[in-house]
Amino acid sequence: MTIKIENIRPDYDEGDILVFEIDGKEYSEYLSSFHLGRETYHQRDGLTDEYRLSEDFEEEEMEEIHSQLNVWIAGNKGSVFEFGSKNPDIERIEHGLNMSEGIDVFLTKEALDRLNIFGDSYSISGDADCATVTWRDREFGRQEIQFNPGEPDRREAILHSTLSNPASVISDIEDRLEWLREDAEAGFEGEDDEDQLENDDEYSAESIRSLTL
Predict the structure, then answer these.
(1) Among 56, 67, 54, which Cα is nearest to 2's?
(2) For residue 64, what are the CA distances in angstroms to 2, 4, 203?
(3) How many CB atoms lie within 10 A of CB 59?
(4) Total domain count for the chain?
(5) What proportion of the chain, given as a percentage, has pLDDT over 90?
(6) What is the pLDDT of residues 154-171, one digit of tens each?
(7) Quick check: 95 and 109 in contact, CB under 8 A?
(8) Which residues does 99 contact at the CB level (< 8 Å), separation at least 6?
(9) E strand intervals along 33-71
(10) Are residues 92 and 161 in the same domain?
(11) Which pLDDT value is given to residue 18?
(12) How distant is the alpha carbon of residue 73 from its chain centre?
């Protein structure tokens, strides 16, 4: 039996995956770098490959599906994938075959101006410890926010929420900009205070000299 696979695309859910359709029904399979499956430790068997499709297909069917997916992977290793967003601030989102390696979120001009971002996008990447958002501010240079919950069982949830919903970090960028501007303003006020103290000292010294004379 020939299995016809359609609408293949990368996604992220408990790690990198490929999503595809068979007979109008959506399925997914783990993707580790350019290889299907995910290495998982079992106390009895040690390190073994785990496959999502093993729950829905017999071994022979799964091998046929994997064979077709591997051909698709080989032809799309260097591809850039693009999708839209319902968020009005976002024009498009781009990523490679493995979303965990990073996604670029391209913003509208209005959003770029509001967020004070230099260039046209911010980036999100993930690793075993945290999700990281990076961008360049027009006044304050390169910025980075790391989302690290500190609890191993919550890290995957953080990665999933940021990579699958990249608009969720826009409010964090807004908060960082507000903090940067407040911090800069406080610094300027501190400099003004120092200048005033120097002026007061000069005035006092001049007064003393006048009295002495």
Answers:
(1) 67
(2) 8, 10, 88
(3) 10
(4) 2
(5) 54
(6) 777 788 888 888 999 999
(7) no
(8) 10, 11, 12, 16, 163
(9) 35-36, 38-42, 46-50
(10) yes
(11) 95
(12) 23
The percent helix, strand, coil of the chain (3-state, each to 5) is 45, 35, 25
pLDDT tens by residue, 21-75: 999 999 999 998 888 988 776 666 666 778 899 888 999 999 999 999 999 999 9
Task: Compute φ and ψ for 6, nearest 5 degrees.
Answer: -135, 160
Q: At 206, is the secondary structure helix, strand, or coil?
A: helix
Same domain, 68 and 97: no
State the residue range of the domain holding 105: 81-179
Asked if 69 contacts 8 with a C-beta cutoff of 8 angstroms, the reply is: yes
Q: Report d(CA 168, CA 9) in Å as an integer.
A: 22
Buried residues in 166-197 as b, exposed as e (16+ CB within 10 A):
bbebbeebeebbeebeeeeeeeeeeeeeeeee
Task: Tell me how crowded residue 105 is: count the other CB atoms within 10 A of its CB.
Answer: 25
Do 96 and 28 share a structural domain?
no
pLDDT score of 48 = 73
The amino acid present at 34, given as its one-letter code, is: F
Look up residue 99 and give its two tokens.
């979303």
Q: Report the chain's mean pLDDT, rounded to a whole number.
A: 83
